[in-house]
Amino acid sequence: DIQMTQSPSSLSASVGDSVTIACRASQSISNYLHWYQQKPGKAPNLLIYSASSFNGIPSRFSGSGSGTHFTLTIYSLQPEDFGTYYCQQSYSMPYTFGQGTKLEIK
Amino acid sequence: EVQLVESGGGLVQPGGSLRLSCAASGFTFGPYAMSWVRQAPGKGLEWISSISAGGAEAYFADSVKGRFTISRDDSKNTLYLQMNSLRAADTAIYYCAKWMDGGALDYWGQGTLVTVSS
Questions:
Q1: Residue A37: how many CB atoms within 10 A of its CB?
Q2: Which pLDDT band, with edges at 50, 70 and 90, does B101 fall under?
Q3: Which residues in chain A are closer than 8 Å to B62, comparing Cβ atoms?
Q4: Tally of CA atoms within 13 A in the half-sphere of A45 that contains its CB
Q5: Fewer CB under 10 Å: which end of chain B, C or N?
């Protein structure tokens, strides 16, 4: 199975800051990497698919990477950006998720 | 508007069975693969099963293989998850999700809670 490792596990930042969340795959997954945001008590929401394609989200979100290293960057943080972010690979079954990164807005 | 509505969750004893349903609307259900993803209380997301468009292919995580089956009824726009031999470790919110090209899950239901406890 492909292991997905996110870092950091949690972070706290202020409105207007930029933050970067990293996701590493245990083997190359090309660009079969997707990012989700989940808020407490809600279902996950797809933010970025295929590493860098937007899913109707604000332009302050940006995804990059290929192979084994990927990043999600949020520019100019807004209060509504709090939540937990997950990466997921769809290169091979089982389609594993990272353990999540909890973002707190100061 | 795409909607996925899960149902069938509840409290079940260890060793028991449940069948979850996911009613889809707002899109043409048949051409899309579908998935189930679960989330144990306070934990992360775990992909557990997917079924291809048409239902010919099904995939399972090792944690549920041999105990869970996935199926779909395209005439009813409904996805199912039959869960047998349930364990305490299966306690989770179960989400159904639509699978877009490339394997991302672009629409999710609100989830249904399954609690396995005596």
A1: 22
A2: confident
A3: 1, 94
A4: 15
A5: N
